UniProtKB/TrEMBL annotation:
It comes from the Bacteria. Keywords: Signal. InterPro entries: Delta_60_rpt (IPR013431). Pfam families: DUF5122. Coiled coil: none annotated. This is PKD domain containing protein. Residues 1-21 form the signal peptide.
Length: 426
């Protein structure tokens, strides 16, 4: 099937082309969600150029210069205006401006990719459940060259005892989150910082999550703004300090330490099927606040089950969320904060639904699979492109030309966009 052609105003196309060109002209660097501010909400009409992932799920997206790298669990892709099916195993790359799939970048990872981070010098870091890349041992994390897909042999940050679910790069440092127990021979429970070139474990970062909710300690998501690293996951302590499922770490000093910031908002239990229910998180571009999204099942207006919640970054001691937006019983997995909007994705049916219980309560608004929230009021914006709900959105990436979306379904904005799509800035 080919992508349906839609009519986009010439001015919109011109503006998007200019913005993409500016992105391509910029030097390669980290394009992490939360680092890009938008002055307005993105269009609800997806661009027609994004390629299609023909099976599985997209878990992660990053941008290296003008190249989009996509990770997940899949085996086949194709370009939007070409019928040729290409084999790609759990990772591929394409040109942001044209949608053309990058040939030559065809690494074979023998397990799912769940996290990506842009590297220097035309490279990308991938984390997940794999143990080898093209037959070379790369346990759970690898640095790949975009030029030919080969692993960078000098990078040796092998993780043992579990997978890598989250990656954040900051200059010469790379943060790893997951449910591993060691990096190389160094004990590190679920969280580590390594040298971005060599993969050597940083002895000045030894923050230890503990007292898990469930059977394993896991860091599910991370985001970095300035000197503060936000982490969430299946833990209730950080270095022995009470931090139920969410905490901030000060990484600006010579030795990292747990920040004097805490919340008990995620201390209550949700459904027994979700002992830990925090999922995605993202900082605002200016770093003043961040937003956490959750699973958990219907919990009512007094709990943060199945919700998005805003927290202020620079407060001390205990804090409550500034606002909470409930889905009324459906999971949210991904969030991107651009200043003009808080984009949330999962398999939700509604937003503004605090009293719903797998139903639309008073005031609920339909936002199937994807939606946007006002950063100040916490109420749903009118933006409502819709998508097939499926498992849900697992990845967002805000960049200067718009918002990339990765999921497990094939309809986005009422069009065929298999598992990846992009909403441009109008």
């Amino acid at each position: 099937m080919l992508a349906r052609t839609v009519s986009v105003p010439a001015a919109t196309l011109a503006a998007t082309t200019l913005t993409v060109a500016a992105t391509l002209a910029a030097p390669p660097g980290v394009a992490a969600a939360g680092s890009v501010a938008h002055g307005r909400v993105v269009s609800a009409d997806p661009v027609d150029t994004t390629p299609h992932v023909l099976d599985g799920i997209v878990n992660a997206i990053t941008l290296v210069g003008g190249t989009v790298v996509v990770g997940g669990s899949f085996t086949e892709v194709r370009e939007a205006r070409d019928s040729a099916v290409l084999e790609r195993t759990n990772i591929f790359a394409y040109d942001l401006a044209t949608g053309r799939i990058v040939h030559g970048f065809e690494p074979y990872l023998n397990g799912a990719v769940t996290s990506l981070a842009a590297g220097a010098d035309g490279t990308v870091y991938a984390g997940g459940g794999f143990s080898a890349t093209d037959g070379v041992t790369t346990r759970k994390v690898v640095r790949l060259r975009l030029s030919d897909g080969s692993p960078v042999t000098g990078f040796r940050a092998h993780a043992f005892g579990g997978s890598v679910t989250s990656l954040v790069r900051s200059g010469s440092r790379l943060y790893l989150g997951g449910d591993f127990t060691h990096v190389g021979r160094t004990p590190r429970t679920a969280l580590a910082r390594v040298d971005a070139v060599t993969g050597a474990v940083d002895p000045e970062f030894a923050i230890t999550p503990g007292a898990p909710r469930g059977s394993r300690t896991r860091v599910h998501a991370m985001a970095l703004s300035g000197s503060r690293l936000a982490v969430d996951g299946s833990f209730t302590t950080l270095d022995g300090l009470s931090r139920p499922q969410l905490g901030l770490i000060d990484v600006g000093a010579a030795r990292a330490k747990v920040a004097d910031w805490r919340t008990d908002a995620y201390a209550p239990s949700c459904s027994a099927a979700f002992p830990s229910y925090v999922r995605g998180l993202d900082f605002a571009p200016d770093g003043r606040y961040f937003v956490v999204v959750t699973s958990g099942g219907p919990g009512g207006p007094r709990k943060l089950c199945d919700s998005a919640a805003r927290f202020e970054t620079h407060v001390r001691g205990g804090t409550r969320p500034t606002w909470v937006n409930h889905t009324g019983g459906d999971s949210l997995y991904a969030v991107a904060v651009t200043g003009s909007a808080v984009y949330v994705g999962g398999h939700q049916r509604w937003l503004d639904n605090p009293t719903g219980s797998d139903s639309a309560g008073p005031g609920a608004v339909a936002r199937p699979g994807i939606g946007a929230i006002h950063p100040t009021t916490g109420r749903a914006l009118s933006w409502n492109p819709t998508r097939d709900r499926g498992i849900g959105v697992k990845a967002f990436l805000a960049h200067p030309a718009g918002l990339l979306v990765g999921s497990d379904t094939i309809r986005l904005g009422h069009e065929y966009h298999a598992r990846i799509g992009m909403f441009p800035l109008p």
